[in-house]
Design goal:
By secondary structure, this protein is mainly beta. The chain has one domain: Rieske Iron-sulfur Protein (3-layer Sandwich), CATH 2.102.10. A 4-stranded antiparallel β-sheet has the order 1-2-12-11, with no helix packed on it. Strand 1 and strand 2 form a beta hairpin. The longest helix is centred in the N-terminal third of the chain and has 6 residues. The protein is globular and about 40 Å long. The termini are far apart.
Length: 138
């Protein structure tokens, strides 16, 4: 698999600033019975290919990245690079996620390291769509 470059300036890399933002509607998700439940109608960021949101908060045991891949499938990952602990971003037009740090680690959708400084895989999370709601195992 060819690794497509992801453009970030030095400042963004040094600070570990991810491209993926929290959802515009902060109330589009909640934690229920050990799962994140996202109302898809209130999360327009997930309506496009490679659209993504990052979920963080006191109700979550760890940060979560939720996205749609190039085929329209929903995917979720523990949002923590195994090299430096920074956040991850989907790379549009590829089937990879990249770390926002100087290490430039890349992972495929199975969580395997494709390139960069990381030695350990990331953790994909199980997802299911129930009507107009996405549920993510945490």
């Amino acid at each position: 698999m060819a690794v497509k470059p992801y453009k970030r300036n030095l400042f963004q890399r040094l600070l570990g600033k991810p491209q993926t933002a929290p959802p515009q509607d902060a109330d589009c998700w909640r934690v229920e019975d050990g799962k994140v439940s996202i109302e898809l109608e209130r999360a327009p960021e997930l309506s496009e290919e490679y659209g993504a949101i990052r979920l963080e908060g006191p109700d979550l045991p760890r940060p979560v990245l939720v996205m749609r891949d190039g085929k329209g499938a929903y995917r979720a990952f523990q949002n923590r690079c195994t090299h430096g602990g920074r956040r991850l971003d989907p790379v549009p037009g590829t089937e990879t996620l990249c770390c926002c740090s100087m290490g430039r680690s890349r992972f495929d959708y199975d969580g395997k390291v494709v390139s960069g400084a990381a030695k350990d895989p990331i953790h994909p999370l199980a997802v299911e769509v129930l009507e107009k709601r996405l549920r993510v195992e945490i």
